[in-house]
């Protein structure tokens, strides 16, 4: 499948997972964070409209408070996220400003996307920031969004948030950065002979069955949540590339339509039928 459509993308959402921001020993992955700031800033300077959906509040919070394990208590996790989010944004602010790029922070809850009025307000804010040439950096508002029955405030995970932001902002492309090359035909953590899938045109039962859980102690959703996000992307007729966050400067290759990671794009035939 050729990737011509990617080359036309102008507004691009990048979702980066905790596993690309935190090293296995719990320290911040400064190289990746710096590469991210450099790459997004230079693309923005060239005229692309970049939006960053970042995870890492809880992971960075653990680092700041020198804790090894994520606490099980919900309020403790919320507190950790509140601490980590400040540190994460402070770091982004420093590094992006080194590349002459202004950034901003938006912390969203699920109800913002569900209620038409607040959805419109969030979209307007993001559009206004982009028109001012400021990169919006978005995370879930983990300090206040917890699982509730009547009033839905939680997205579930940031893969879904990344997909919803892509739809909300009518972006042309979602690039999802993880700690792995892309989607494999089986969990590569378990099977040595797992093979990379280059293109996915539909989320079938067989594709869902390839997915296993998170690869690091910091990641949350694993591959299943990335495929759930891909469903949102397909339903909205958007495109997504899942690729390795270890080589962030390759984002440029992805945008140039080169074969990197796994490309999720509904086949033309399918689009005609629907
Ligand atoms: N079929 C699969 N293809 C690729 N990765 C898979 C698959 N099944 C399970 N995984 C695991 O999913 C992990 C990525 O998810 P996760 O740890 O949640 O990362 P992130 O923090 O980037 O969101 C990979 O490191 C890998 O171990
Ligand atoms: N909002 C959470 C991210 C949760 C999440 O989905 O993490 P990840 O699987 O690393 O993308 C945080 O900032 O810690």
Automatic annotation (TrEMBL):
<feature type="binding site">
    <location>
        <position position="55"/>
    </location>
    <ligand>
        <name>substrate</name>
    </ligand>
</feature>
<keyword id="KW-0418">Kinase</keyword>
<keyword id="KW-0547">Nucleotide-binding</keyword>
<dbReference type="GO" id="GO:0005524">
    <property type="term" value="F:ATP binding"/>
</dbReference>
<dbReference type="InterPro" id="IPR011529">
    <property type="entry name" value="Glu_5kinase"/>
</dbReference>
<comment type="function">
    <text>Catalyzes the transfer of a phosphate group to glutamate to form L-glutamate 5-phosphate.</text>
</comment>
<dbReference type="InterPro" id="IPR036393">
    <property type="entry name" value="AceGlu_kinase-like_sf"/>
</dbReference>
<dbReference type="InterPro" id="IPR001057">
    <property type="entry name" value="Glu/AcGlu_kinase"/>
</dbReference>
<feature type="binding site">
    <location>
        <begin position="220"/>
        <end position="226"/>
    </location>
    <ligand>
        <name>ATP</name>
    </ligand>
</feature>
<dbReference type="GO" id="GO:0005829">
    <property type="term" value="C:cytosol"/>
</dbReference>
<feature type="binding site">
    <location>
        <position position="142"/>
    </location>
    <ligand>
        <name>substrate</name>
    </ligand>
</feature>
<dbReference type="InterPro" id="IPR019797">
    <property type="entry name" value="Glutamate_5-kinase_CS"/>
</dbReference>
<keyword id="KW-0641">Proline biosynthesis</keyword>
<dbReference type="GO" id="GO:0055129">
    <property type="term" value="P:L-proline biosynthetic process"/>
</dbReference>
<comment type="pathway">
    <text>Amino-acid biosynthesis; L-proline biosynthesis; L-glutamate 5-semialdehyde from L-glutamate: step 1/2.</text>
</comment>
<feature type="binding site">
    <location>
        <position position="15"/>
    </location>
    <ligand>
        <name>ATP</name>
    </ligand>
</feature>
<keyword id="KW-0963">Cytoplasm</keyword>
<protein>
    <recommendedName>
        <fullName>Glutamate 5-kinase</fullName>
        <ecNumber>2.7.2.11</ecNumber>
    </recommendedName>
</protein>
<dbReference type="GO" id="GO:0004349">
    <property type="term" value="F:glutamate 5-kinase activity"/>
</dbReference>
<dbReference type="InterPro" id="IPR005715">
    <property type="entry name" value="Glu_5kinase/COase_Synthase"/>
</dbReference>
<comment type="similarity">
    <text>Belongs to the glutamate 5-kinase family.</text>
</comment>
<feature type="binding site">
    <location>
        <begin position="178"/>
        <end position="179"/>
    </location>
    <ligand>
        <name>ATP</name>
    </ligand>
</feature>
<dbReference type="InterPro" id="IPR041739">
    <property type="entry name" value="G5K_ProB"/>
</dbReference>
<dbReference type="InterPro" id="IPR001048">
    <property type="entry name" value="Asp/Glu/Uridylate_kinase"/>
</dbReference>
<feature type="domain" description="Aspartate/glutamate/uridylate kinase">
    <location>
        <begin position="10"/>
        <end position="240"/>
    </location>
</feature>
<keyword id="KW-0808">Transferase</keyword>
<feature type="binding site">
    <location>
        <position position="158"/>
    </location>
    <ligand>
        <name>substrate</name>
    </ligand>
</feature>
<dbReference type="Pfam" id="PF00696">
    <property type="entry name" value="AA_kinase"/>
</dbReference>
<keyword id="KW-0028">Amino-acid biosynthesis</keyword>
<keyword id="KW-0067">ATP-binding</keyword>
